[in-house]
């Protein structure tokens, strides 16, 4: 019988993960839910079988470690998350965790590294469940807001983060106390492998990307335009307080701003993921009096984000006053942009050249836990894997050979970095 290779193991784990989290169409691994727990248990089982050390912190993050010669030296870390969006794809997040396991298995069979090498399977990265960006990694560093366990509710249950953590066997008091589980001074570097969430690598016909920066974002989840619901035939234009037309004007103004920003060379993307009237109130014979929407703007440059935020608030006020409606963009969250460490990026490019793998350097439009590490001063970088059909949908299509190329780049870089 042929020995199981690290990539054989990876293929088996992807298949097992798809089965245990199947939720037609796609997969669902809710943050701090039983399926996310099962995914963590699967990685723990494999790590133990490989003779690796495992531990789980008070937040629920899993650490799998190949011991180094100097256990007190700052560790080399890799990892990603195991939760998914509802009815998502099987590879978002999970590819980085399984790539980390491949790395540890390959390093295990060579000389002992000079420091610990640790894979971190991170909890609750997908903001769709709990509206706090990078929840698991920020909690690990003790920088999540201390009121988050009791303030933040899960989208599908309406129950608090504290309730879900306690139910899963973890300790929300750790977050309330701001107690860190990780010390950035004890981390030499962090590299996250992740599928690309856009079409850039597909269109460039490159299997692997090296990320230049993770875009920061400003997100408004609860935008409202309140006008007046009136008769579609009986009320003339000048007497209307039409929420939809006010929203349309605001959207047009935002797209114009976006086009002008691109023309200036600014990095920016803008999305209205929801834009809807109230199904209980709207109708073909009614002037709509209420519109709700979401707003997500991202950039590699925090200045671009802040300028847009100031501009859009003024636009909302001006359009609202002119049209006789109230436009309230509501509270927002902001995640800072995270440039990747130039020396690690260069090392990854060299590793790809040594492996004869064509790469492309590109920004990450999506947010990733790697940004938390970078924000804490940890030298950080990301490796993207070509992935057809985008992410956060059941049609994610990462080819195992592309996954293997990314694993080769990570391994070659790690060996050079560790000098083993």
From TrEMBL:
Recorded superkingdom: Bacteria
Residue ranges that the Swiss-Prot or TrEMBL entry lists as coiled coil: none
GO molecular function: hydrolase activity
Enzyme class: hydrolase
Assigned keywords, A-Z: Hydrolase
Entry annotated with the keyword Nuclease: no
Entries under NCBIfam families matching the protein: hydantase (TIGR01879)
Name recorded for this polypeptide: Hydantoinase/carbamoylase family amidase
């Amino acid at each position: 019988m042929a020995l199981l290779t690290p990539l054989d193991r990876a293929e088996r784990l992807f298949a097992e993960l798809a089965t245990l989290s199947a939720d037609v169409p796609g997969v669902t691994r809710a943050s701090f839910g039983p399926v996310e727990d099962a995914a963590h248990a699967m990685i723990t089982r494999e790590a133990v079988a490989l003779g690796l050390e495992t531990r789980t912190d008070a937040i629920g993050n899993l650490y799998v470690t190949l011991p180094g010669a100097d256990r007190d030296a700052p560790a080399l870390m890799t990892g990603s998350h195991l939760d998914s969006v509802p009815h998502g794809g099987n590879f978002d997040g999970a590819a980085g965790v399984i790539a980390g396991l491949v790395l540890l298995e390959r390093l295990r069979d060579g000389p002992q590294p000079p420091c610990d090498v640790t894979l971190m399977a991170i909890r609750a990265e997908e903001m769709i469940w709990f509206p706090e960006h990078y929840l698991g990694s920020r909690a690990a560093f003790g920088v999540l807001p201390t009121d988050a366990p009791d303030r933040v509710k899960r989208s599908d249950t309406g129950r608090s983060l504290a309730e879900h953590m306690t139910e899963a066997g973890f300790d929300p008091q750790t977050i309330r106390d701001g107690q860190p589980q990780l010390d950035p001074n004890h981390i030499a570097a962090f590299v996250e492998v992740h599928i690309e969430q856009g079409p850039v690598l597909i269109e460039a016909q490159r299997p692997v990307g090296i990320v230049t920066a993770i875009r920061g974002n400003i997100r408004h989840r609860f935008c409202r335009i309140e006008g007046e619901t009136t008769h579609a035939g009986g009320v003339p234009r000048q007497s209307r307080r039409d929420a939809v037309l006010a929203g349309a004007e605001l959207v047009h103004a935002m797209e114009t701003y976006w086009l002008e920003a691109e023309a200036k060379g600014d990095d920016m993307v803008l999305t209205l993921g929801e834009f809807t009237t109230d199904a209980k109130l709207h109708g073909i014979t009614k002037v709509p009096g209420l519109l709700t929407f979401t707003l997500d703007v991202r950039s590699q440059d925090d200045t671009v984000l802040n300028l847009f935020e100031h501009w859009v608030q003024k636009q909302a006020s001006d359009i609202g006053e002119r049209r006789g409606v109230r436009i309230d963009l509501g509270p927002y969250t902001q995640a800072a942009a995270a440039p990747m460490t130039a020396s690690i990026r260069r090392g990854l490019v060299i590793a790809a050249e040594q492996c004869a793998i064509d790469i492309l350097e590109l920004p990450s439009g999506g947010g990733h836990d790697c940004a938390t590490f970078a924000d804490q001063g940890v030298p950080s970088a990301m490796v993207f894997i070509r992935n057809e059909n985008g992410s956060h949908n059941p049609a994610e299509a990462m080819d195992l050979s592309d996954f293997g190329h990314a694993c080769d780049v990570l391994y070659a870089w790690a060996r050079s970095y560790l000098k083993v």
